[in-house]
Structures are given as structure tokens and as C-alpha cells.
Amino acid sequence: MERFQGENFQKNVEIVDKIKEIAQEKDCTPSQLAIAWTIANGALPIPGTKRIKYLEENAAAADVLLTKEDLERIEAVSPKTAVAGERMTAEGMSEVNL
Asked: What is the DSSP string of the chain?
């Protein structure tokens, strides 16, 4: 998978590190930040889990309040086009109905 190889991997790790910093400042996990961001953008996230511990963690994301400035900062750190590398190989993409 291209996203996890060479320079692409390093660029994507840098994005993750910045998201971790923002989450730490908001006193939440990166997962909670992502869920709160999704909600703030008008979507309903449906995270899955097998463990109650993570279910509770995911639910606590509802308590993460993101300001306009927080949302702008997250978008600046990780705009929709920031991820480096393709999601799947060409062969893999041909096997899914996207």
C-alpha cells in the first residue's frame, strides 16, 4: 500500500503527529478528536469496536468541544488532499465498487 511506503509513510506520520498534538491540547485521544471533528462537520460517525473500553472512549468524543479555530487548525494540518499515496493498489481499486 503506497500510503505506508517510503516518503508517503513519513509524510503521513507527520500529519498523525500533528493531530496527536492537537488532541493532547484538547485533552482527548486522536480518535476522539476525529469523531468530534466528524460531528462538527455535520456527519454522523459510526465507529466500530469490540471492547467496551473503546466504546466508552468513542462516546466521550461527544464531550470534546471544537471551536472554529480548532476546526481551522485541524483543516490546516490535515486538509482533505494531505494524505500521501493511494488508498489501494490499482488492482485493489478494480475489485471494489467505488
From this structure: -GGGSHHHHHHHHHHHHHHHHHHHHTTS-HHHHHHHHHHHTT-------SSHHHHHHHHGGGG----HHHHHHHHHHS-TT---S-SS-HHHHHTS--
Q: Grid coordinates representing 1?
A: 500500500
d(C-alpha 23, C-alpha 34), whole Å: 9
- The pTM score is 0.76
* HSE-up of residue 54 (Cα within 13 Å, Cβ side): 9
Residue type for 51, please? R
How far is it, in rounded angstroms, from Cα 7 to Cα 3?
9
% of the chain beyond a pLDDT of 90: 52
